[in-house]
């Protein structure tokens, strides 16, 4: 038996992946991090199907809440209430309609959830991973920044110093939807950078991978968008799953599960594009930028203790 910690499993591809992971790897005990009652509801459904799953309350936009969740995981492991930790899935993601939304910690909300929360959780749990372990972070092909990968719907990333990216207003016309989407694509580029840096720093036998599900309509990612955009994503975009341009949640979730369980083999640091190992964008390979991002995140989380 082993424990897997997962974020972003209450809806969309994460919910599909959680059930598929437990179905194909029944020796897994799932700890699901989520806000409010959503995590408990999903875990109750999974437990009703005979799977081992329990919820850990966590608001990933809050550094103190994220720290508290990590401490609860430590306590469960220390008391032997869950088996050893052998995996982490950072599937939670957020996209806002501007670049001005701030968390209570004063961080830009997209960057806080998509980047800082993953780094904080991995840092706090890093000494508990057994060998072998596998860490998977969900990213996005919007980090390429070209029409082929984003269908013109999301502007490409615009890199700034990490201190600027972590604060509201990093991009032009920060009150615009374009700025909010730029914050999203840039945060996904940042996570690919961070996966590369973690691959260099984690001990042998603890693998980390980035997984791109492609364009997946109906995941709830655009729940903060305007009514027209939500309607288009909910009612029109799903038709694209009948073409190679988009993937349905069930397929994307099953692919994520295959990466997590090791059914899809890949070397640590790899980028998984849907169902194969591929190269991420050329701009995502920058050891200097990756080291700078790591150092800044370390300073940022240290400056916000519990």
Overview of this protein structure:
The protein is an alpha/beta fold and 306 residues long. It has a single domain, classed as Rossmann fold (3-Layer(aba) Sandwich), CATH 3.40.50. It is built from 10 helices and 8 strands. It has helices at residues 12-24, 38-48, 63-78, 109-125, 147-150, 162-165, 177-201, 227-236, 249-261, 287-302; strands at residues 2-7, 28-34, 52-57, 85-90, 129-138, 206-212, 271-273, 276-278. An 8-stranded mixed sheet has the order 3-2-1-4-5-6-7-8, with helices on both faces. Strand 1 (2-7), helix 1 and strand 2 (28-34) form a beta-alpha-beta unit. Helix 3 (63-78) runs parallel beside helix 4 (109-125), helix 4 runs parallel beside helix 7 (177-201) and helix 7 crosses helix 10. The two termini are 31 Å apart. The relative contact order is 0.15. Residues 228-232 have low confidence and may be disordered.
Q: Roughly what percent helix?
A: 40-55%
Order of helices and strands: EHEHEHEHEHHHEHHEEH
Give the overall silhouette.
globular
| CATH level 4 superfamily | NAD(P)-binding Rossmann-like Domain
Give a short summary of the structure.
The protein is α/β, with parallel strands linked by helices and 306 residues long. The protein has helices spanning 12-24, 38-48, 63-78, 109-125, 147-150, 162-165, 177-201, 227-236, 249-261, 287-302, and strands at 2-7, 28-34, 52-57, 85-90, 129-138, 206-212, 271-273, 276-278.
